[in-house]
């Protein structure tokens, strides 16, 4: 029996429609992050609590106003170099997971596991605690001024902020993305609100705070890396789009464009914000302030000063949301590669969110939040974070040499990659001398992942009874959470 061309074409369209419907109904993370959400994701994650808290840490460790401004500019340039390297990595390796994936592809599974281990055990809990405490501080402190805000209340509000962000990322990917876009516009408005009166005062002749700005009497070379740590922390987040590569529309174009535009904008804004701070405050006044933006608003924006803490708190919330949006994808990829429990690689069957990976971070953040001094948290987390960033870009250089024909839709100049890698290793090495207690503890916790890798991942030495119990609990947790393995390959 002959089948007409029209019938054949109709059957083909019908099959394609059925296949599309099946794919739409399948459990997987959707590729629906365009250019604007990508830019908002980077800027919204970078611009958080750092620019409102880190100026104190940068000035404290640099020793002068001029050198602190130079540190801010150099941190912006260095972060842009690193972001360009990650643009190449993100377009060369199309999996989500950021530097975990890149280390896995270039330096092997052990290095990748240590990255995963350190992120789960202390980097993400420390960073999320830092941002959430800043959120709580800016929400609570205006209610008690001029007195100090109760520490317990600050931590309670911080926990509520974390709970809100976790709930949002468990509920809907698109809702979390829209929240990120909204909060990004709010926080950029907050920065503009700080920059304009500061620059206007500077133009009108208020320059007394910029006299002898390179006074080197307080300069200590051993503390200078800690100044860079504070500054680089404020720029941290430029790699977070790489956590969600599998959900980005046309990543070969979107990732480089979003990264370049975002980093140029953030660097310019950060330097101008610090110029505005120093225009209205002396160095000593800035060092004495626990909430720099609030102190600034009291001087320069008396009419809208009560609203500044709200804008800063929303800025912190945006950074917190970006972290909880991106990092669970690293855990998901790690579980998918067999380096974490399989339950963490599962996705909610209705909401299409990485529910288990998001939820597992919450208790860790709460534990760290109970105790921990805010600047110690920066130094503690920054050491391992920058160590692995340096290793990822080193791996990129090695991969270029070993596999010159590997497709690289975006290729960063080799000099940029080499400079960035050397500077990162230098800062990481010098910080061991400058702050041996925190950075040494961070290094020790990172290395503690080596026996865990060989005992549980490389070759499992877990007793069969324990393994059977864990699998039983995982199965019931899977049923309770309504999650399943990804059904569509997205890379």
Automatic annotation (TrEMBL):
Gene Ontology CC: membrane
Transmembrane segments annotated in the record for this chain: 33-53, 65-87, 121-140, 152-173, 185-204, 224-243, 255-278, 308-332, 353-371, 377-398, 410-433, 439-457
Localization per record: Membrane
Superkingdom in the source lineage: Eukaryota
UniProt main location, coarse: membrane
Alphabetical keyword list: Membrane, Transmembrane, Transmembrane helix
GO molecular function: L-amino acid transmembrane transporter activity
Membrane topology: Multi-pass membrane protein
Protein name listed in UniProt: Cystine/glutamate transporter isoform X1
Species per Swiss-Prot/TrEMBL record: Cyprinus carpio (Common carp)
Taxon lineage: Eukaryota, Metazoa, Chordata, Craniata, Vertebrata
């Amino acid at each position: 029996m002959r089948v007409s061309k029209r019938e054949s074409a109709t059957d083909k369209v019908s099959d394609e429609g059925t296949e599309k419907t099946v794919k739409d109904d399948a459990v997987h993370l959707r590729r629906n992050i365009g250019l604007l959400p990508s830019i908002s994701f980077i800027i919204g994650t970078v611009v958080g609590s750092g620019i409102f808290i880190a100026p104190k840490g940068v000035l404290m460790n640099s020793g002068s106003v001029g050198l602190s401004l130079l540190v801010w500019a150099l941190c912006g340039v260095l972060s842009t170099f690193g972001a360009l390297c990650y643009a190449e990595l993100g377009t060369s390796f199309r999996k989500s997971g950021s530097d975990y994936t890149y280390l896995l592809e270039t330096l092997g599974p052990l290095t990748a596991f240590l990255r995963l281990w350190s992120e789960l055990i202390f980097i993400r809990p420390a960073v999320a605690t830092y941002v959430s405490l800043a959120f709580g501080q800016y929400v609570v402190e205006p209610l008690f001024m001029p007195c100090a805000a109760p520490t317990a209340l600050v931590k309670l509000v911080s926990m509520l902020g974390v709970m809100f962000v976790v709930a949002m990322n468990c509920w809907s990917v698109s809702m979390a993305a829209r929240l990120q876009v909204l909060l990004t516009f709010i926080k950029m408005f907050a920065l503009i609100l700080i920059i304009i009166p500061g620059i206007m005062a500077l133009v009108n002749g208020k320059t007394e705070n910029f006299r002898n700005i390179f006074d080197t009497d307080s300069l200590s070379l051993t503390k200078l890396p800690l100044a860079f740590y504070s500054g680089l922390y404020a720029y941290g987040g430029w790699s977070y789009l790489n956590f969600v590569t599998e959900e980005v529309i046309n990543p070969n174009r979107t990732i480089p464009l979003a990264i370049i535009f975002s980093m140029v904008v953030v660097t310019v804004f950060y330097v101008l914000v610090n110029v505005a701070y120093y225009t209205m405050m002396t160095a000593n006044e800035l060092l004495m302030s626990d909430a720099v933006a609030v102190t600034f608003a009291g001087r320069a924006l008396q009419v809208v000063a009560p609203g500044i803490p709200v804008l800063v708190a929303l800025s912190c919330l945006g950074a917190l949301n970006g972290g909880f949006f991106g990092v669970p994808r690293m855990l998901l990829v790690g579980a998918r590669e067999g380096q974490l429990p399989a339950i963490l690689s599962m996705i909610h069957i209705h909401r299409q969110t990485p529910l288990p990976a998001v939820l597992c971070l919450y208790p860790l953040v709460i534990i760290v939040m109970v105790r921990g001094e805010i600047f110690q948290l920066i130094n503690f987390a920054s050491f391992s974070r920058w160590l692995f960033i340096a290793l990822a870009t080193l791996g990129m250089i090695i991969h270029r040499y070993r596999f010159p024909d590997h497709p690289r839709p975006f290729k960063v100049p080799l000099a940029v990659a080499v400079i960035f890698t050397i500077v990162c290793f230098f800062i990481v090495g010098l910080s061991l001398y400058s702050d041996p207690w925190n950075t040494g503890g961070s290094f020790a916790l990172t290395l503690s992942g080596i026996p865990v890798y060989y005992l549980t991942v490389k070759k499992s030495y877990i007793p069969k009874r324990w393994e059977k119990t864990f699998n039983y609990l995982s199965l019931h947790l899977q049923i309770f959470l309504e999650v399943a393995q990804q059904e569509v390959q997205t890379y």
